[in-house]
Amino acid sequence: MSALKRQHAIAICGAAVVIGLAAVSATALLPRDPANDAGPAPGSTSTASSPSSAGSTGPTAPSAPQPDPLPSLAPEVAGLASDPTADWSIDAEAGFVYAIDDDHLATVGFIDPNAGTVEIRLVTVADGKDVWRSELKGDAFQVRIRPLTGTDLLVVHSDTLLYLVDRTDGSVKETYTTEFDSWYGSASDGSLWYLARKDDEQYPRLSKLRSHDPADAAWTTELATMPFMVTDTMVDVHGGHAFVTEASTDNVFRPSSNTLQRSPEAIVALALIDGTMPDWSDGVSLTWFDDAIVTASEGGTVTGRGEDGATRWEATGQRALNLNGALIVSTPTSVSRLDPATGAVIWEAEVPQAEQFAVIGGDLAVAAYVEQSMGESPGAGLVTFLDLTTGQTRSEVEVVLQTFPAIWRGEDQLLLSTRQGEAEKLWAISPDGKVNYTYTTEEEMFFADAAGSLFAISKETITRLR
After folding, report:
1. Which DSSP state fits 361?
2. pTM of the full predicted structure?
3. For the chain, which terminal residue's Cβ has fewer other Cβ atoms within 10 angstroms, N or C?
């Protein structure tokens, strides 16, 4: 993984986008003159309490008036349709948003920080209107919300408080106590997992659960590696293994709309039956396909394995990613596509630098931070689009970067955002190299994608953009 970490907090937890922000004014996105822009030219085993409803006051019917759609926010580069570019905007005191499914978002706001109470809201993506509101004990800056796969429950986790909330009406069904530094959630097969670490422990412990109770573990294993953030870790299951992934990393693309989102790189694989770690899982990153597991070592060896871990093939590379079913292997200056079953090279291409990746239709976008910023001087970035079938270069686009960028996939364009002083800039770039439009925020506002939509988020407002 790249040593460069994005400085502002962006985490995606099981289809959740979490944005933590400093105090800002509720300022709309403002157009700027592209002529004055320096951008491109257009073209845990823990002690758990018994289930209860303590710490919550329950859901309430929506009472606040619903906002009207915002007026049009002009992009900096022409090319958008004439419809308004902002669908709606709602108040969000803490500036946190979590994607629950394609149609719903959950937001978190303070009610009384001194009393430690927060308001959880479930809103519809289409119009920003409330489905329900619920008041709970917790710290808005620590809350994580995610759906439990195959159920009508939402996990609302804040510090040591774990609530299981009915997603239909916001009522609290179960309450547990957890470790402070912990993650609780489900894998794509519906299995339940709990990862936790105490202050005096070097590595966290992963438990496969028999029930909703985080203390009811079928087995518990100490991981021999440390996730970037325990609270933003995820577990997925494939074949006979549980793969521990980081839900948010600095240099990988996550789908914009998925019930369970994860990084395409796992940090460890464990035997599903008892939690033991196979030797081939130690000290590598992992990705997986229907009939193959691929590992990448820091020493520069990529290995294709069967479900039993037996070696099938080896290749040179430092990272291996499953991007929309394509095995992409990279070094700092090269990208190749391999057959995951045999290791056969489908194509390989040299690039100036390879750090972040996204599949846009039939193309692979490779983004790199090629020149770091110095003081107030902006850095330089380069986006290269490669044909996913042949590896041929389709286009290259230079962008101005002050920080390491975050990238997302639109339906037919790459969305890339980066800090620009106290603001944030968004680029929308087609694989043919055309800059469709750019946005620049004012002060501390951030862009994020959730539930298949793009949002501009401040400490006080959440705005859905077209």
Report:
1. T
2. 0.78
3. C
